[in-house]
Amino acid sequence: MVSIHDCAGIEALRHRLRLDPDMLRRWRNAFFKQHRDADEAFRELPPLQRAELAAAVTCHHLELLERHDSQLDGASKLLFRTARGHRIETVILRIASGRTAVCVSSQAGCAARCGFCATGHMGFAQDLTAAEILDQVALANRILRPEGRSIRNVVFMGMGEPLHNEEAVYQSVGILQSPRYFDLAPGRILVSTVGIPDAMVRCAERLPRARVALSLHSARQEQRERLIPLARRYPLAQLRAAAAAVAAQQQRPLMIEYLLLDGVNDTTEDLAALADFLHGLPAHVNLIPYNPIADAPHLHPTPSARRREFAASLSALGFRVTVRYSLGADIAAACGQLVHSR
Ligand code: SF4
Question: Which of 89, 132, 161, 257 is catalytic?
Answer without folding.
Answer: 89
